[in-house]
Design goal:
single chain; 176 residues; alpha+beta; 6-stranded antiparallel sheet; two-stranded antiparallel ribbon; 38% helix
């Protein structure tokens, strides 16, 4: 399940908003029915997690924390205490509770941003936009992607170091 794209929408006076059709289709294809809503940890936006993704996130967090460590328990409590299970109505709408609208500064116009396995919900008129400047993006992306040419990546293609450190199989087979 991959949520991709950037869609603008409007919340009604009650705080109900339509989940964009492209995201609803992704959920249906994956057999997901419920979402979990929470305020983002780093940004002034809300995040929708499909229930299975939320459960994976909780498992990952719990595996990094010690139940017998007071600070770890406080972190876990803080992370899970202010969440809202969300179910879409028959029209594909869901309610964003007032406290969440306030947390994200949302009044009416919202911006849905697909973030791979989650969906962010931003105030459309946010002063601090969710995107970086194009020139900064290109510079930072290039820096990140070229940080370590010798690092194996997730593409399955051997890195430069892996290619040069292994003897040529053809030479070994030929006995050279």
């Amino acid at each position: 399940m991959r949520f991709l794209g950037h869609i603008e929408a409007k919340a009604d006076k009650k705080g109900r908003v339509f989940l964009p059709a492209v995201f609803r289709r992704e959920m249906q294809e994956a057999g997901e029915e419920r979402l979990i809503l929470r305020k983002d940890v780093f940004e002034p936006c809300l995040v929708l997690y499909p229930e299975s993704v939320w459960n994976q996130q909780l498992d990952t967090l719990r595996n990094h924390l010690n139940r017998w460590n007071k600070k770890h328990q406080q972190i876990f409590r803080m992370f899970i205490s202010d969440v809202e299970p969300v179910t879409l109505d028959g029209n594909g709408r869901f309610l964003i509770p007032k406290r969440y609208l306030k947390m994200a500064g949302i009044q009416q116009e919202v911006r849905f941003i697909g973030m791979d396995d989650t969906i962010e919900i931003w105030c459309h008129s946010q002063e601090d936009p969710p995107f970086m400047e194009a020139t900064e993006f290109v510079k930072d992306l290039q820096e990140i992607m070229s940080e370590d040419k010798n690092r194996a990546d997730n593409t399955g293609i051997p890195s430069e170091k892996e290619r040069t450190s292994q003897p040529d199989k053809d030479l070994i087979l030929k006995g050279e």
